[in-house]
Every structure is written in structure tokens, then in C-alpha cells.
Amino acid sequence: MAATVIDGKAFAAKVRGQVAEHVARLKEEHGITPGLAVVLVGEDPASQVYVRSKGKSTVEVGMNSFEHKLDAGTSEADLLALIDQLNSDPKVHGILVQLPLPGHLDEDLVINSIAPEKDVDGFHISNVGLLGTGQKSMVPCTPLGCLMMLREHHGSLSGLDAVVIGRSNIVGKPMAQLLLGDSCTVTIAHSRTKDLPDVVRRADIVVAAVGRPEMVPGDWIKEGATVIDVGINRIDAPEKGEGKTRLVGDVDYASAAERAGAITPVPGGVGPMTIACLLANTVTAACRANNLAEPEGLTA
Ligand SMILES: Nc1nc(=O)c2c([nH]1)NC[C@@H]1CN(c3ccc(C(=O)N[C@@H](CCC(=O)O)C(=O)O)cc3)C=[N+]21
Ligand SMILES: [Mg+2]
């Protein structure tokens, strides 16, 4: 049986529509326009593409977008001073510092200098602790987007066996927390896992977040399992012509789709949901900052 394709692009458009409705209501009823500040240090071309696309989406849902582009040699003190200024700016409800940062900057220090209630990436140590203890927090955008797609597809996740491949602070660990919060039996697998194929074969839900092109072959996937592919890897595509590239996930899509019950494509799966959830988190932050009811269905 061919797998259901979970259309992240369409789902993200729906989420952005819900965000836009909340933004309109905040403006009309309370005179509040949610604002998102994105800070980019350096000229990494891929990062510039993401930042531009985030800025465009932010404006499209009616929010204010503040972009701060600093040159690659910016000192830690100057970056921290900017974050301080954004922390105390009432027009800024969300702050995202694009990662990775240039090597001379301490990422943990920088992230933890963001006011936790404005940390729309959910990377601040306070938000990590709140999520880990099941308290209200800012939830990292990629895992939140994955959770929304899983809930939409399954309804309840209770009792399902979930395997998360990858243990990063950005995706793997928070994804595991969210799945646990929805009462899955959660395994976190990684590069040292023994018998990874067998571990994955037990899973009703597989979340692949390693960053290695097509490392999960279809024969690791249990018949009917749901596969969420977080990887976005650019690889050479000589078949498209000299010097051409294409995007692939961490899962070998063609073979996995023959066994999975449902699967997210790359591109058009998790990526668009990540940006939609960033906007959702910004609205949530604006509501919390003003003691207003939070949007339903846009938080974990
Ligand atoms: N503080 C911080 N927060 C982030 O959330 C963050 C970050 N830093 N640094 C970089 C990564 C990367 N990231 C992506 C988001 C959407 C797509 C996305 O929408 N991708 C499209 C394809 C885009 C293309 O064609 O290149 C898709 O999957 O369909 C990709 C990558 C967020 N990141
Ligand atoms: Mg790893």
C-alpha cells in the first residue's frame, strides 16, 4: 500500500492562516501588532535565504518583522547589547538568533541572554527545563511542527512506540519530550545505538533528525509506520546537469514510502511547518506578554 503523503506545505499554510486570524484579532481588539526580531550574524548564503523567507512570512501574516544583520566579526559584547535592547523593546515579542553563529561567539551564552518569554526558538535553558517538566514554555519550532502533523494524522498518540533518531538539543531531545508528553513510549537513537535497524523496525512513529542524506532505508520501516523526516540535505544531482543539486531528507523516501503508512516529503514537509510554528510562537508570546488568552491549537 502506498503511503499517505503528509503535506507539510499545505498544513503550514493552514497554520499561517490561523496565525493571521489571531494577529488580526490582536490588532482590532487590543491594538497590538506582534513583532518578531531575527538576528543574523555573518553572510552564510543558506542562512540569508532562511532569514529572508522568515521575514516574508512574518509580514504576510500581519506581524512586524525586524531584521538585524550584523557582520561576521561582530563582538560578543555588541551582540549581547543588541539582544538586551530587543529584550526591553515592547514592540518585539519574539527574538530569533539564527544559528549557527560564527565560531568566536558562545552560542549557549547568547541564547541564554534572550528573555525566555521572547525566546520563540525555545532554546533558552529555562524553556528547555519547563518543557522537560511539562510546564508552559516556548516549544522549539521544528519539533512542534512535527507534533502537529503527528496529531493531525493519528488523533491520539497515546501508547505508540516512537523512535527519534538524533539527540540534538534543537530537534531530537525536545521532540522526545513532546512525544513523551503525548504518552508515546519513546526511544532516542543516535550514532552509537546498537542495532539501529532493529530499533527503528519496532517503531510506530519514526522521526529522523540526524542530518545525513537518505541514511534510513525503507527496509528499516515497519509496515504502516508514520515517518517524519526532519533532514534537509543538499546533495549533488548530476542527473539534473553539471553542478546541479537537490534536497533530500534523512530517509530514503522512495523505499520508505513503499512501507510507511504516512510520510513527510523533503522539501515540503517539516521545513515549512518550522517557519509556520515560529510565527505561531510569536503570536503566543505576544498574547502571554499582554495577559491575553493564547491561540488554541498553536501550542503544544
Ligand atoms: N535559531 C534558528 N532557528 C531555526 O529554526 C533555524 C536556524 N536558527 N538556523 C537554520 C535552520 C534551518 N531552518 C529551516 C527552516 C525552514 C526550512 C524550509 O522551509 N525548507 C524548505 C525548502 C527550502 C529550500 O528549498 O531550500 C522545505 O523543507 O520545504 C529549512 C530550514 C531553520 N533553522
Ligand atoms: Mg547524533
TrEMBL record:
Residue ranges constituting the Tetrahydrofolate dehydrogenase/cyclohydrolase catalytic domain according to the UniProt record: 6-121
Keywords noted in UniProt: Amino-acid biosynthesis, Histidine biosynthesis, Hydrolase, Methionine biosynthesis, Multifunctional enzyme, NADP, One-carbon metabolism, Oxidoreductase, Purine biosynthesis
Residue numbers binding NADP(+): G166, R167, S168, I232
GO biological process: L-histidine biosynthetic process; methionine biosynthetic process; purine nucleotide biosynthetic process; tetrahydrofolate interconversion
PROSITE patterns per record: THF_DHG_CYH_1, THF_DHG_CYH_2
Pathway entry: One-carbon metabolism; tetrahydrofolate interconversion
EC annotation from Swiss-Prot or TrEMBL: 1.5.1.5, 3.5.4.9
GO CC term, one of those recorded: cytosol
Pfam family, one: THF_DHG_CYH
UniProt GO MF annotations: methenyltetrahydrofolate cyclohydrolase activity; methylenetetrahydrofolate dehydrogenase (NADP+) activity
Catalytic activity: (6R)-5,10-methenyltetrahydrofolate + H2O = (6R)-10-formyltetrahydrofolate + H(+); (6R)-5,10-methylene-5,6,7,8-tetrahydrofolate + NADP(+) = (6R)-5,10-methenyltetrahydrofolate + NADPH
Record domain Tetrahydrofolate dehydrogenase/cyclohydrolase NAD(P)-binding: where: 140-288
Assembly: Homodimer.
PANTHER family attached to this UniProt entry: C-1-TETRAHYDROFOLATE SYNTHASE, CYTOPLASMIC (PTHR48099:SF5), C-1-TETRAHYDROFOLATE SYNTHASE, CYTOPLASMIC-RELATED (PTHR48099)
Family: Belongs to the tetrahydrofolate dehydrogenase/cyclohydrolase family.
Role played: Catalyzes the oxidation of 5,10-methylenetetrahydrofolate to 5,10-methenyltetrahydrofolate and then the hydrolysis of 5,10-methenyltetrahydrofolate to 10-formyltetrahydrofolate.
Protein name: Bifunctional protein FolD
Lineage: Bacteria, Pseudomonadati, Pseudomonadota, Alphaproteobacteria, Rhodobacterales
Originating gene: folD
